[in-house]
Amino acid sequence: MLLVSEPTLGEQEKAALAAVIASNWITMGDRVRAFEAAFAAAHGADDAVAVNSCTAGLHLALAALEIGPGDAVLVPSLSFVATANCVLHAGAAPVFVDIDGPGRPLISIEDAACRCTERTRAVVVVHYAGAVADREAWRGFAVAKGLRLIEDAAQAAGAPGAGSFGDAAVFSFYGNKNMTTAEGGMVIARDPAVLSIVRQLRGHGMTSSTRERIDTRTPGYDVTRLGWNYRLDELRAAIGSVQLQSLTKWNDRRAMLTRCYWEALAERCPDVQVPFANGNIASAYHILPAVLPEMTDRDRIMALMRDAGVQTTVHYPPIHTLSFYREKGPSVSLPRTEAFARRELTLPLHPKLTEQDVVHVADALRRSLAWPGVRR
Ligand SMILES: Cc1ncc(COP(=O)(O)O)c(C=O)c1O
User: Fold this and answer.
1) Ligand 1, closest atom to CA 79?
2) pTM
3) b/e string for 241-270 if b means 16 or more Cβ within 10 A?
4) Is the bond preceding 230 in cis, omega lying within 30 degrees of 0?
5) Ligand 1: does its nearest atom lie under 6 Å from the Cβ of 82?
6) Whose CA is nearest to atom 14 of ligand 1?
7) How many angstroms is it from 375 CA to the middle of ligand 1?
8) What is the sign, positive or negative, of the torsion defined by CA atoms of 182, 155, 124, 327?
9) How confident is the model over 190-242, as pLDDT tens digits?
10) Which has the closest alpha carbon to 244: 127, 157, 130, 351?
């Protein structure tokens, strides 16, 4: 079965884990600090804060930027549910925004402008599929409207420009991401004061960590803010530092495979649209979303693809259509997001695939689309 995503793990990760165990220091030590420094440097930042998930990082970013009760936060509905959940956890209200369209399924700046009110305090821009949203346009928007800008860069580790323009940017190292620590995330904030608050909130709001107290021989600590336990451990940080060394190589391979998909699908399935195809948008090429022709039985296609040895998934059911959010906002309507999500099909994309695998997937999709009864 060709899987939609697969981590690349090997002897170096095993050795890194063994070294942590041999060191007998298993959380919040030198390896976490080293991972933070290396990840920050790889993204052109001075520093970063490692956390135990991107979800935790988004929550901390909102808290550090003082987004809370009474505030409204613009978010795309075409995202993983964590993007909106974090806004609710911060005590604020998510306001769902439509996408540009099927060729560019990123949060629409025009629709965001229409949904701004005097309560709007922030916007979360998601780099969907790893494609980096327009830096200048979003900075200009945030400045003009007086909003905080947060990049949900969960899917965009290593993409040129990712993490370079938000007041905070948050990355995910979940098992299906371009680099993984199994669970984990990283926060970048350009203002050192904001990053320092994120660091403090990550550890219960305490003024120092266990390691710092040992190193500085100061046993006491204070708590000056209400924080959480969102810490990363040394085992995950050690894996992260190893994975980071291959990130550029893996992203380059994803880019090459994506170009193969553009070609193979254009030839075999000309009525399937591939977002971002042949565009010049910077990307980490995290997933390969395809848009099926109107009136296609997607469930049937997915079953036929499975029979051909190809796993497919959907990114995403729009957040505003999920029961919990539907009950909160029954009248929310985002026509472009809904149309895209009805037809979207995610095809396998990860560095272990070959160009032949891509051709096999495109052939399987061509055959599935030609199956009797699949087109309604
Ligand atoms: C766009 C987006 N935001 C947030 C998350 C949450 O990441 P994590 O699982 O690290 O909390 C994900 C993960 O799938 C994601 O794709």
Assistant:
1) 1
2) 0.97
3) bbbbebbeebbebbeebbebbeebbeebbe
4) no
5) yes
6) 80
7) 33
8) negative
9) 999 999 999 999 999 999 888 888 888 888 999 999 999 999 999 999 999 99
10) 157
**Which of these is catalytic: 145, 177, 249, 352?**
177
Residue 185's alpha-carbon distances to 39, 144, 356, in angstroms, are: 11, 30, 33
For ligand 1, the distance from its centroid to the CA atom of residue 236, given in whole angstroms, is 17
pLDDT means per 10 residues, the chain with 376 residues, are 98 98 95 98 98 98 98 98 98 98 98 98 98 98 98 98 98 98 97 98 94 86 97 98 98 98 98 93 98 97 98 98 97 98 98 98 98 93
Joined tokens for residue 130 = 């790893």
**C-alpha distances in Å from residue 218, one per residue of 30, 39, 199:** 18, 29, 19
Nearest atom within ligand 1 for CA of residue 185: 10
Closest residue to atom 8 of ligand 1, CA basis:
54
Query: Which of 4, 107, 150, 155, when mutated, tests ligand 1's pocket best, judged by the most ligand atoms within 8 Å of its CB?
Result: 155
Q: Which fold has domain 11-241?
A: Aspartate Aminotransferase; domain 2 (3.40.640)
Q: How far apart are the first and last CA of the chain?
A: 28
* Ligand 1 close to Cβ of residue 154 (< 6 A): yes
Report the greatest alpha carbon distance in the chain.
74
Q: Which CATH homologous superfamily contains domain 247-369? A: Aspartate Aminotransferase, domain 1 (3.90.1150.10)
Q: Which residues contact 71 (CB under 8 A, 6 or more apart)?
A: 90, 91, 92, 93, 119, 120, 121, 122
Please give the number of the atom of ligand 1 that sits closest to the Cα of 56.
Answer: 11
What is the Å distance from ligand 1's center to 187 Cα?
A: 13
- 249 in active site: no
Ligand 1 pocket: which of 172, 178, 286, 346 to mutate (most atoms <8 Å of CB)? Answer: 172
Residue tagged 């609710």 (tokens): 88
Token pair for residue 376?
């309604």
Domain assignments of the chain as residue spans, ordered by start: 11-241, 247-369
Give the separation between CA 242 and CA 252, rounded to whole angstroms. Answer: 17
- Residue 42's alpha-carbon distances to 22, 74, 95, 264, in angstroms, are 28, 28, 32, 32
